[in-house]
Amino acid sequence: MKILGIGNAIVDVICKVDDQYLINNQLIKSTMKLVDEIEFKKLLSSLKIEQTISGGSVANSIVGLSQLGNDVGFIGKVNDDNLGQKYEEGLTKEKVQYFYNKKKEISPTGTCLILITPDAERTMVTFLGIAGKISPSDINEKAIQESKMIFLEGYLWDEGEPKSAFDKAMSMSNTKAMSLSDQFCVDRHKSDFLDLVKNKLDITFANEQEIRSLINAKNFEEVIEFGKQLGKLLIITRGEKGSIAVKNQEITECKSKPNLKIVDLTGAGDLFAAGFLHGLINNSSTKECLEKGTAMSSKIIQKIGARLD
C-alpha cells in the first residue's frame, strides 16, 4: 500500500445558503466551526440537502489518490449506525481499503454541514460525534507498517485519546505527511503544530493563511524564509496566486489555472494534496507534483462536493 490516510471519518451534508443565513447563525464564512449535536440538528432543520457523501479532509485526499490508480487505505472512526454503514460503503466503492471495524458506540457517526454561498465559498459546521474519539487502539499497526507513507489531518489533533492515536501512528511510520486543515485549527494548536512541522513531519500542506498564522508571518517572504530553513517539504496553496513548494533552498512555483467556472471550493485543498502526493509517490518532479495538484483542485472546484466522478 502506498499511502494510509488517518483522519476524521465525517459524512458531508452539502447545502446551498445565502450570506444572510451565515450572519443569522453567527457563522464566519470559509471557516470550520465545531458544534454539539443539538446545535447541528437546529442548523440543519431549515435547510434543503443537496448531497450526502463520505467525507473528511484526508478521506477526500485518499479517494482522489485511489481514483488516480494508487493502492491506498484509510483509518477513521464511525459508529455502527446508518451513516457509519454509508460511510464504509462510500469508501469501498472508491476502492479504498478501510482499516476500521465498526461497533455500536454511544456517539453517532460524525457529520459535517457544508454551507455553500453564491460566491462558491464553503463554510463548515461539524459535529464530530464518534470521529473525534479516535484512540490508539483504533490505529491498525499492520496497515501503517505496510504503507510507504501516512497522511494525517490537523483536524484530528485534539488533547487526550486523539493526540495519543496521532502520536502512535507517527511513531510507527517512515514518512509522515500532514495537512494543517484550517486556520482556526492552527490557532487552537499553534505550539503543537509548530513542533510537528519543525520536528516530526516530513511533508506539510498548508494554505497561505494557515502557514502565516502558524509562524506569525507579516508577509509571504517570511513564509518562504521559514520554508528554506525548515529542511522538510513544505507545500503552500495560494488560491488565484497558484501554489509553491519549498525544500531547503529549492523553491518551485506553479500558476493556478485561469478562467475556471468556480461552483464550490469544498475539497480544493484535499484534492490538491491528492494530486501532489500522487506525483510524489510515482517519482514525478516537484513541478509535476504541483501541476497534478493544481489539475485536481481545478476540477473539483467546478462541481458540487469534494469527490470527482
Strand order of the largest sheet: 6-5-1-9-10-11-12-13-14
Tell me the CATH architecture. Answer: 3-Layer(aba) Sandwich
CATH class: Alpha Beta
CATH superfamily, by name, is Ribokinase
Q: Please name the CATH topology.
A: UDP-N-acetylmuramoyl-L-alanine:D-glutamate ligase
Shape descriptor: globular
The H-and-E topology, N to C, reads as: EEHEHEHEHEEEHEHEHHEHHEEEHH
- SS strand fraction: 15-25%
Average pLDDT figure: 93
- Give the low-pLDDT segments: none
**What percentage of residues falls in helices of 4 or more residues?**
25-40%
| Estimated structural class | alpha/beta
Distance between the termini: 23 Å
Radius of gyration: 18 Å
Number of strands: 14
In total, how many domains does the architecture comprise?
Answer: 1
How many helices? The count is 12
Biggest sheet record = 9 strands, mixed
Compact description:
The chain has helices spanning 19-24, 37-44, 57-67, 82-93, 141-145, 161-172, 183-188, 190-200, 208-215, 220-230, 268-281, 286-300, and strands at 3-6, 10-16, 32-34, 49-55, 72-75, 97-98, 110-116, 122-127, 149-153, 176-179, 203-207, 233-237, 243-247, 250-254. By secondary structure, the chain is α/β, with parallel strands linked by helices. The protein has a nine-stranded mixed beta sheet with strand order 6-5-1-9-10-11-12-13-14, sandwiched between helices.
